[in-house]
Specification:
- The protein is mostly helical and about 220 residues long.
- The protein has a single domain, classed as Outer membrane efflux proteins (OEP), CATH 1.20.1600.10.
- Helices cover about 70% and strands about 10% of the residues.
- The chain has a two-stranded antiparallel sheet.
């Protein structure tokens, strides 16, 4: 047991050092040794609708689509006829001309390719957005139901452990001489193995939950 404690402490030290590296060399202080309450919405579709609007990747693709649509409008506007007005004065030998000038410029091919290119880019961004949504939905659906299953498993194991905790009775029986030290150690080993399974199940649920919430970062 002491060897296992040393191994766990060494792993903990390495993980804290890695966190410091990721945090720009600043130490992260942990003041709590229990998991906070992470409640998932009972309905996946409701949870997904709330999460989709916060995903930075999808937000970026939406922005690209909006930019493309505005670019199409701009290029179309640039293809409209352009009017000009002004005043002109010109002198030549023995004559002087002056007066108001009016002009109209009608772009024919100048902007045609730009409009096509902008429309193509917008269609590409829309296709990327739809594909990203499908991939995002399927990935979250898998993670969500995995987290739900792990949560239920952790709750069942924790409840079973609480209902069948006979550690105080074993100690009482040992002190009274009703069981041998060998029997006590065997029985207590079963109990701590169960505790270890409960803690691992709760840890797996927390990791799955954090992976779900990470999609908003």
């Amino acid at each position: 047991m002491q060897a296992e404690v040393v191994q766990v402490e060494a792993e903990q030290t390495a993980l804290i050092a890695e966190l410091m590296r990721l945090n720009g060399g600043k130490e992260i202080v942990f003041s709590n040794d229990t998991y906070s309450a992470n409640a998932l919405l009972a309905n996946f579709e409701d949870w997904y609708a709330m999460t989709e609007s916060k995903n930075p990747v999808l937000q970026y693709v939406r922005t690209q689509i909006e930019i493309g649509q505005q670019q199409v409008k701009l290029n179309c506007a640039m293809g409209l006829p352009k009017f000009s007005a002004g005043y002109m004065s010109e002198k030549i030998v023995a004559e002087h001309f002056q007066g108001i000038t009016l002009g109209m410029n009608i772009p024919l091919w100048e902007n045609k390719n730009r409009v096509r290119e902008a429309k193509a880019q917008t269609r590409a961004a829309e296709a990327i957005f739809e594909d990203s949504k499908v991939q995002f939905y399927n990935r979250l659906q898998i993670l969500y139901f995995k987290a739900i299953a792990l949560q239920q498993n952790a709750q069942i194991l924790r409840q079973s452990l609480n209902d069948n905790n006979n550690e105080p009775l074993l100690k009482t029986a040992l002190d009274a001489g009703e069981i041998s030290l060998l029997n006590y150690l065997l029985e207590i080993e079963f109990y701590y193995n169960a505790v270890d399974k409960v803690l691992k199940a709760e840890r797996d649920f927390e990791l799955a939950t954090m992976e779900l919430w990470a999609v908003e970062l």
